[in-house]
Amino acid sequence: MPDAGTGLDTPDASEAFCDGTPYVCPANAICDDFEDITSSDFPGVQRESGTVSQTNWMTGMPASAASSIGPGTTACRGGKSLHFTATGAAQSLKLAYGFSTIPRPTSLYARVFMRIASSSPGSDFETMGMQRASDGKFISFGFTHDKVLVDSPDLRDLNEDTGIAGPLERNAWMCIRMHVIFDAGANGVLELSIDDVPVVTIRGATDLTPGFDRFQLTTVTGADETGVFDVDYDSLVIADHDISCYP
Ligand SMILES: [Ca+2]
User: Fold this and answer.
1) pTM for the full model?
2) Does CATH place domain 29-239 in 2.60.120.200?
């Protein structure tokens, strides 16, 4: 069962979706459990070679030596997760998945488990989104301690702060589900839920021409950030159909 508090409750170490059951990747999906990738059938997406990146987004130079990407010490499923440590200002830590077929499916679904260490600051950081590899333009979801942010400098009608009913869990896994209907005009849809509770629903332009060709998990910090974010991801599924939190 989902959390009573939709990701906003008292931290609980054992979320029901972290049950350790071997996950069977559904058809027409890519499943990355950070043990290995189990499928890459459709929508023609694959973990991009060489696109694990650590930079300072303001300078374009390497990230802080105190920032890192590697296996996490806790996992929601299996024995490993993907762990980001982002230290200080303008850190851009990314793992990208590229689409080998354009156009993509009209409707794209992504489901991932995310865990924010309680030592992380409450200020905003970007967690995931779509990017156009050729020029870096993007739509990104960000999280503060008590807000979900949608940021896209190139799709101005999407720039929104979306309030949620309380602070996000810390030291506990949350189920994040994203749905995009790609449209460069007025018919796009962008939705996000936490533990099965909708927190973002936006209608309008959700794409560029040519379109976004990359999905990415990130920990990107702000220009004035001084804290240290520790964020884990596990059991990512990208599909052309809806993927639940369970199993
Ligand atoms: Ca795992």
Assistant:
1) 0.90
2) yes
